[in-house]
Amino acid sequence: MKSKLATISISKLARYASDPESVFEKVNERALKYGNRAHASIGKGPSLALFIIVAIVILIAARKAGLF
User: Is the pLDDT assigned to residue 34 strictly greater than 80?
Assistant: First the structure.
């Protein structure tokens, strides 16, 4: 396991040594992609359709159980 991590680290260092700007560009692209996904999921709440479907299923189960 340690040798694999060391190999990955050496390859990253080699990339950085050859073209440092490309490494920063890739990191920025990935951070932007993750940030967009995180931002989209924060503002996303439960949908009304899902709430209605769950309510209907609960009502049907309650009627079959004899609660209504």
Answer: no
* Contact between 23 and 16 (Cβ < 8 Å): yes
For 42, half-sphere exposure in the C-beta direction (CA atoms, 13 angstrom radius) is 6
Question: Rounded distance, CA 35 to CA 25, Å?
Answer: 15
Q: What angle do CA 47, 49, 54 make, to 5 degrees?
A: 100
Give the domain extent around 22. Answer: 2-65
pTM as predicted: 0.36
Amino acid making up residue 29: E
Number of domains into which the chain is organized: 1
